[in-house]
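FIELD: query
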Amino acid sequence: VQLQASGGGLVQAGGSLRLSCAASGRTFRNLAVGWFRQAPGKEREFVAGISWNGGRTFHSDSVTGRFTISRDNAKNTVYLQMNYLKSEDTAVYYCAADFWRGGYSLNRDYEYWGQGTLVTVSS
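FIELD: result
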């Protein structure tokens, strides 16, 4: 499985962006997917996760109410809609995927990772 994250860019605080994670391979529709982010000088952290069929979603406390993860298996794509962006959301955002291993929020829950897309929020 190969993942390609896109949609990052420069946005003002309070604005919105939608990230996309496009995947190759027919098994993608069977995989759980997560979004993570890494800010400069910080460890990579969990942002949101979604089950293979979209029936379960999870968001970190820092983005709950502002970000929404969703997926379209017909398009082999997972989205992260980000609203009310803050300067502290500035980071490289990565998508990751794997067969569900019992969790969504840890790096070790995923084997396949995309290359990352940079989100910069100006205050």
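FIELD: remark
The CA atoms of residues 28 and 76 lie 6 Å apart.
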